[in-house]
Structures are given as C-alpha cells and as structure tokens.
Description:
Blueprint: E1 4-10, E2 15-22, E3 31-42, H1 54-60, E4 61-67, H2 74-77, H3 86-95, H4 102-131, H5 137-168, H6 174-202, H7 209-228, H8 239-257, E5 262-267, H9 271-293, H10 301-330, E6 336-342, E7 348-359, H11 366-372, H12 378-382, E8 385-396, H13 398-405, E9 411-418, H14 420-423, E10 430-436, E11 443-449, E12 452-462, E13 465-476, E14 479-485
Antiparallel strand pairs: 1-2, 2-9, 3-8, 3-12, 4-9, 5-6, 6-7, 7-8, 10-11, 12-13, 13-14
Amino acid sequence: MQGVVKRVTIHDKQNIEVKFEYLSNLVTNKDTYRIDMFFFIPKQLEVNESTYPSSTFYNDTKTYTRLKEPVLALDRVADKNCKFSPLARLHEILEYPNSFDPKIITKEVKLYGVIVKARLRELEDTVLDELLPKGKESTILHIIEETFENYMKASREFRNLKDLFSSQYPLYSGEVQEAFEIVDDYTSAIAEGVFAKLAKYLSKSEKFYGIFSQIADFFQKEDTYRRSKNYKLIKPSNPKQAENYTHILSVYKKYISSVLFLDTQQNQKYAGFIHLIAAVAAALAMLAYLVITLPYSGSSAAVLTILTLSYVLKDRIKEVVRLKLSPYLLRYFPDHEVKVLDQQTSSVVAVCQEKIKFLNFEELEEAIKAARQPFLTASQIQLQEEIMQFSRRITVFTKKIFQIHSRTVTLTDIIRYNFRKFLYKMDEPVDILHFFDKNKKTPTQITAPRVYFVDLVLKISSHDQTVVEVYRVVLDKKGIKTVKKLS
Length: 487
C-alpha cells in the first residue's frame, strides 16, 4: 500500500511484533492511517469479553512510536559534501567552534550509528531473504563488495572525526567522548556479525572465498583495534563472556537508538462523557426516588421503611443505569488518546486513538470475512471462535516533523502483543497416539504435537486505499511456534 510498509514477526516465545512504517510526504500538513487487527480465537481458550477486559489487553500490548533513521546509503554517509550525512555535519561543527554543543554532537554520532546498523541489516536481509533463494551469486558478490568498501570508508572517516574532536577541543566533554567510543565499538561489532553470518551461509560457493578472506583479515585487525581501545564488545571465549557480550550489545543498541525515540502522553479523551453518563444515571435514579417518596409524609414505621427502601432502590437504579449505558455508548468512542511528542521540542508530532472490543460474527465487515474464508480449516469452521478487534488510528503531522528533523518524516509504529493469556487453557504440547503395527502386529505409538491456530487479519486504511492481509499464529502450551502469512 502507498505510504505504509508492514511486517509481522515473532519477537519471542510469547510475543508477536507488528511493525508499520508510515512513509509520509510533504504535500500535506498531516497524514492519517487506520490499523485494524482482528484476532480469531478458538473458543476453548476462554479468551472473551468476560475473562479478558480491555485493561488486560493493554497490559499485554506494548506500542512504540519512533522516527525512522534517515534513508542514506553508506557511500553518502562517508561523503563530506552530503548535507544529510551525520559525518558532514560533524565536520561543520569542527569548522565553527562557537557551535560546539555536546547534545548536537552526540545526536549526530548516534545517527551515524543507527544509519550504519540499518544499512548492514538491509544487506543481510537482501542477501539471505531475496537473492540467495534465487541463486543470484554474482549480484550477491557485487553488493557485498560494495557495502564492505563503503563501510570501511565511513568507519575511517568516523574515527578520524573522533580523533579530531579529541585533539582539537579542550571542551571535548566526557559525554561526547563516550558517545564516539560506544558507537565505534557497536558499529564494528555489528559489522563483524553481519559479514560473518553472510560468510557462513555463502561458504559453500568458491565465488566468495576471496572477498570473505579479505573481510576476515579486516575484522582480525578490528579485534586488535577494539582491544587496544579497551572496548567492551570483544569476542567471547566462554558462555559467561557471551552472556555479558549480548547484554552490552543490547544496552548499546538502546543507547544509540534513543536518538530516534519519541515521548508519549496518554489521556482519556472522553472522560467528560463518562462523567456525563454517571450524571444521567444519578438524575434518573433521583427522579425515581422522588416519584416513590413524594406521596408519603410523616414518621410512621411504614413511611420510614418505604423511604429507606426507596433510597436503596435509588442507589441501585443509578448503578444499573450507569453500567448498562456505559458499555453501549462508550463502544463507539476510543478507549484513550496518545499524543506522540518530540523529545527535543516537546511538540506534538502525532496523535493516536486506540480501541479494543469483542465482536459477534454478524458484526464483522464483509471484507474481513471474505479475506479469511479461503484459509479456514475444518476445525475452525466447526468450532466457534471469539473475535477481538484492536483499532489504532494515527495522525502524523508531517511538516512539523520535517521542520524539527529535516532528514526524515517517516514514523515507525511497533505493536508488540503478548499471547500469555491464550496459553493458560491449552492442553500439553505433545500427545501420544497409539496404533497397531500392521506388519509386526504389535502396539506402537507416535508422538504428535498439539497446536492451536489464532488467525490475525490486518486491515490498513490510508489515502482512500485499503489493504487486508491474513496471518496465522500457530501456538502450543509453550508459546508461539510460527507466524505464517496466508494472503
């Protein structure tokens, strides 16, 4: 779909991750997107409106909205004349000492790190997921050689700037020095990991021996360099060191990626409407109380009894009216609104509205029914399902983002959903099936996995366009086994 890139993956044994990139443009001041996620849940899992309130759903759902790194090729990153390159902007700071601001320098250093990491991950995905299955070895060799050469150029330029800041400026602060060292250590380790992984998958072909021999020599020198700088990401030699290595890698990743983070501020936009419902309920209850009690006066036991019972009845009428009206009326309003704020300026750069509800099959849109119909299994047709819909409407203020950041107007929206509640009522993940061996005429058994299907239908709407996609989450008692795209 124009303006939206999406991806559904397994994050861990209990979580799936749905990632959207909103590729906004500068033609309009703002762009609006709506995401609807329909979960089709086997009834035997007992995840329904009674057992799974909205508060539990939001506890199981984590959403992250951040800026996407500038789309800049590695050769452009190393180019001093490219005005979008973080390295070019660091050179400008060196030329104008009065512009020395540790926060701005640290931001550019981190941006270099996220851009390099993104381009290396793209290389890995392109080779392993697209080119290798098609057997395009010549193309693979070309892009590996090109990416490796551009990475070395960018790395040399970055280290040159690191040394220049260290030697030329007495104001060179600890914050800036730490940023340079972390990013230098991190990008070197990430690059070695990506190229080593590619070498593993391509080792059977003689065509790649030369380039990977050259790359191996380079990273042997990199290891020596990182050790000489007392960097922390040194190749581990035992499980304890490996544990420490992955921990530091994760910490560095969050530190560098923080340059793209956005703040969020949640509020219940329709809180006033909820109070209005309560006021209407109270008014109706008071009216009923007056109708019952006005004909009576005096202080006899009978009158006092009637007054007391009427007061109790009034209180119950108020509560019943509130409970009956609230779910019906609030069904048509978002649960809450989330403002997305830029960390530097605190400006609102996007607004999200979210809603979770359970549906009957009759309430389901025809487009959703039609999209899922070809993939229904016999068990899904025969057994009833619960249908849960999560809606997220996001308005991105494109021009405001561009005014603040100038190098990107793309937001990344990540929805991470935890299936832990789905697992509670599942049977054991393995069943033992008993048969007779037809030849030996003796009993035999087969171990059979027991799984459950939860279908996820995504509906994405933007710019008068709508796309519907169907995914199947395969689970057992231990968690998520696979996520398959069906359409």
